[in-house]
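#struct-help
A.M.: can someone run this one for me? Single chain, 549 residues.
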Amino acid sequence: MTSEVAALLIVDDNEDNRYTLTRRLNREGYTNLTTAANGREALSRLTTQTFDLVLLDIMMPDMNGYEVLENVKANPALRDIPIIMISALNELDSVIRCIELGAEDYLTKPFNATLLRARVGASLDKKRLRDEVRRNLRRLEEELDAARVLQLGMLPRQFPVWSPSRPVAVHAVMRPAREVGGDLYDCFYTGDRTFCFLVGDVSGKGAPAAMFMARTRSLVRIAVDLWREWRSDEIDPAALIEMVNRELCQNNDDRMFITLFLGLIDTATGVLSFVNAGHPAPHLLCANGETRQIEAKPAVPLGIRRFARFAGRTLTIQPGDALFVCSDGVFEALNEHGDLFSMERLTGVLRAAHDAGPDELVRIVNDAVDAFTGAAPAADDITALALRWQPADSVTEHSRPGGRCMIRSIDIPIRNEISQLATVRDALDRIGDELRIPTPALMQLQVAADEIVSNVIKYAWPDGVDAEFLVRITIRPRTVTLEIIDDGAAFDPRTAPEPPPADQRPRPGGIGIHMIRKLVDDFAYQRIDGRNHTTLTKNRMAGAAQKQE
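D.P.: on it. Structure tokens below:
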């Protein structure tokens, strides 16, 4: 920072002192100088102008230099401006008090030209270095934020919808402890009746772990695709993991490794084939209420020994059974007292929620961890995946003893733009095709969704405000529910006036809401934590029932 561009504020109640200091600084090349005659004027200028350094007199009437210094350091927007205290006082106590309050340096009157030049120059140099560090930190934060978005974008956020032909409902969440993390999950169908899922945890944290995580996920996907392309036999998870491990060991100069649980479910028979490479064993949540960890003795993690051998195992699950797989960040989460969440506590939470849908199960566990840890910082990434196998012939309208009907949710982020209506329509079309929802019921739900979502887009926020809200589609054996969650102005659409009789002119508003009431089977609203939750529920088979009548 050159002397010509550095902006300095001189604060002194004595005009002669201000003049003398200004002249001396001009001689040193400092031309961008501003003066203030008292503490209150100084604070006013600091809040309206930008300064690189303040020279502040201590002994002033009304508000002395100590008070000005305290006010500046208490203001987050001003606290980083360096301040040199100037005074005729030369007592050590005064110097100590100024330094303790946050002053950069201290000068005594009358001013020594050499000392003035040295201390002003040193203070500006330190500010320039601090500003450079802050700029680099901001740039790094922006890059890490972008990396976080990219990393989370690699993991599935929309999950396969339960249907008779694809009878597995699944949901997962990954919460990195830092901007980017080393945990991973994935789930996908490979073939007509094989559902693949995995959860992993890379050694270390931060960007290196995130890169290793991305590499692992890609290798598993590639290995599965190549197996299907080149071989006709069923995928052997042990052989698959051995291929991935060999690739991970290559060029692994940092000796990173990953624990991984990989499972393949035969959706026709319920046979689970799996390999556990050093990962915590999953929990099996049986439809009859029993909850336990499966016997899955961990083998060596991937990335350690290139030619390590892995043993595959099998387990037959029953209709309605669920699996919960997580990283050790869940049960090793620490509270403010240093206590672990513990595997025992996790098992208890899962046992209490054994009949919940996968998305609800993941949410319950995350909420339990958050409630336990409180304000303690996250020590490790947290990843959880839950799935439930529910063959079509086992789905009933009512909950079975110890089990619940299949529930599946899809979250769709929406911007407040009318063009975004197409996103909701497309999602409902896909669900309608997959679940064979009768056309009349699907069309009625789509019309109702268009009406309520467009109302949120148009009226929830003031004109010109860019916002985003959530449309959550929940599929149950007999119903489809749309929940629209937004942080716009509070509004209960059910309070809209009823339309007038047919022989009277319609009043503004209310017609669309009245139409929604006619199109759906349930219309609800709640205001929760500053957000509108508007819910539309439609009987999936309403059109078929009307047709039969």
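A.M.: thanks! Residues 177-392 form a domain with the Phosphatase 2c; domain 1 fold (CATH 3.60.40.10).
D.P.: also worth noting: Confidence is low (pLDDT under 50) at residues 396-405, 544-549.
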